[in-house]
Amino acid sequence: MANDSSVHAIDRFFASVMFVMYVWRLASLFNNARPSNFFLQLAAFCFALFSYMNSQDAQELNDKDGFKFWHNLWHCFPLFLIVIEARDRFILGEYDAQEESRALYGAYVNKVKMATKKKY
Length: 120
Known about the structure:
The chain is elongated. The chain has helices spanning 6-32, 35-60, 64-75, 77-91, 97-119. It is mostly helical. The termini are far apart.
């Protein structure tokens, strides 16, 4: 099932680099994206890892059908991300974490001002 070739080695190398880059992206999304977007992307990433691990297990057991199934699900990961990003941008609209923080801070300041006015 596994073809040992130079292309396979290059694929493995780039998959490892992309894995590290995506973990870095998730770390940056934690503070700079909607929580729903972050958790959906984290869930998609975990599912991709789950699929990859199952494809490796199927390969070790020489289960060709299982390997094809899980390996194809592993390769659907970018499609899942496209759907998540499209939902976030086109359905939910623009999101600015700093703007939301300023709005929450402004609401907090107003609440504190109102609370102090009531006391006097």
